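To whoever is on call:

I kicked off a structure prediction for a single chain this morning and the downstream step that reads the tokens threw a length-mismatch warning. I double-checked the sequence; it's 119 residues and nothing unusual in it as far as I can see. Pasting both halves so you can look.
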Amino acid sequence: MGNLPGVPDTSIDVANAAAADDKRIDVALLGDNIVIPAPGPSKRTLIGHLDMQAQGAVTVLIKSGSTAKAGPYTFTALAGIAFDFPSFSPWGMGVNEPLVLELSAAVRVTGLVTFRTAT
């Protein structure tokens, strides 16, 4: 597998974060697939949990906007991976940047991401 996600960003003010929400991952396009849209000016997406499973052979790069955050992860059919981050130390995306999965092939990748937004 590839590099693990970076060290959670403890500079984020999680006390002012919105309540957690879940988003199903279901993408299959070659290239960039937006999983969570940009949250808006001065806001960041904070990831508490992310899991994904590939339906075929594919390499996945996890990105914040256009910036690589983790990976690449190479999957065989039905292989998967999961990440959990404590609520006091989530994995933060860049300010007003979407969570993106970049796929090396048009292969279906499904999963779940639990996230919050914060300023």
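Update from on-call: the warning came from a stale cache, not from the record. Cleared it. Sanity check on the structure: The chain is about 0% helix and 50% strand.
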